[in-house]
Design a protein that fits this description.
With about 250 residues, the protein is of the alpha/beta class. About 50% of the residues lie in helices and about 15% in strands. It has helices at about 15-30, 40-50, 65-80, 105-130, 155-175, 200-205, 205-210, 215-230; strands spanning about 10, 30-35, 55-60, 85-90, 135-140, 180-185, 235-240. A 7-stranded parallel β-sheet has the order 3-2-1-4-5-6-7, with helices on both faces. Helix 3 (about 65-80) packs parallel to helix 4 (about 105-130) and helix 4 (about 105-130) runs parallel beside helix 5 (about 155-175). Bound molecules: NADPH dihydro-nicotinamide-adenine-dinucleotide phosphate (NDP). NADPH dihydro-nicotinamide-adenine-dinucleotide phosphate binds near residues 13, 17, 18 and 38. It comes from Paenibacillus filicis.
Length: about 250
């Protein structure tokens, strides 16, 4: 893991699930990780465990919906570690439901966290990465960013958008400033994401989904692979799903 060691990696949504697994794995591989999320107590205990195992980690309380929080998070990382090599835009919510249920507040929340949160992350780090003439932005989409099922219209819409934004970023920045852009699209993964579901229809399927789900470390390993490839190699897109997931 030569190209990962000492890299400064900011991870949003690092208080649980895929973000937490990614922070732990990258720290093991010698990266300096900056964990961001809203639940500060969770972040602090993960950071403490990483440090006890000899890793380098710090945390910052940030809501991705707040552009101001995201700017401050990037400033904090720069002040502590002097540069920003990678941003993993991972924070996300999935309160899926059928459109006729008219859960308008949940639609807005998904758009705010899953789309605007990613844009706020890009805005927070892009000037620094352009100045460095190097950097890597990894955006977590989903298998739902390729296919739509009943109940996933809005969630899928946000994850299609994440892929469009990532591809736009790649086309604009990679040839010019050498900033790499990667889309990571997980299938069913064993995390707390189902806790954000309120639709009784989807809650009824939760046990089936949990039965299929793979470890968040499967996704973390894909993220680590994209980071570790040499700087002249852009890993643009990886889809990882349980073997048994159709
Ligand atoms: P978790 O619920 O375990 O993690 C979600 C993370 O996002 C938490 O750390 C949470 O932290 C953070 N988060 C949520 N809202 C905000 C916010 N407004 N500001 C900052 N952080 C926020 O789920 P996953 O690990 O599964 O989710 C990670 C990503 O993976 C998401 O983008 C999700 O859409 C995607 N994904 C997951 C799949 C799965 O099956 N699990 C499948 C496909 C994609 P806190 O509450 O402390 O702020």
């Amino acid at each position: 893991m030569e190209n990962t060691k000492d890299k400064v990696v900011i991870i949003t949504g690092a208080s649980s699930g895929i973000g937490e697994a990614t922070a732990r794995l990258l720290a093991q591989k010698g990266a300096k990780v900056v964990l961001a999320a809203r639940r500060e107590d969770r972040l602090q205990s993960i950071v403490k465990e990483i440090q006890e195992q000899g890793g380098q980690a710090i945390s910052f309380k940030a809501d991705v919906v707040s552009s101001d929080d995201m700017q401050k998070m990037a400033e904090f990382a720069l002040k502590q570690y002097g540069r920003i090599d990678v941003l993993v835009n991972n924070a996300g919510v999935m309160p899926v439901s059928r459109l006729h249920e008219l859960r308008v507040a949940e639609w807005s929340q998904m758009i705010d966290v899953n789309i605007k949160g990613v844009l706020h992350g890009i805005a927070a780090v892009l000037p620094t990465m352009r100045e460095q003439r190097s950097g890597h932005i990894i955006n977590v989409s989903s298998v739902a960013g390729y296919e739509v099922s009943p109940t996933s219209a809005v969630y899928s819409g946000t994850k299609f958008a994440v892929r469009a934004i990532s591809e736009g970023l790649r086309k604009e920045e990679s040839p010019e400033s050498r900033i790499r852009s990667t889309i990571i699209s997980p299938g069913m993964t064993e995390t707390e994401l189902l806790n954000t579901v309120n639709s009784p229809e989807v809650q009824a399927m939760a046990e089936h989904i949990k039965g299929l789900a793979i470890s968040p470390y499967s996704i973390a390993r894909a993220i680590a692979y994209a980071i570790d490839e040499p700087e002249d190699t852009g890993v643009n897109e990886i889809v990882i799903r349980p073997t048994a997931q159709p």
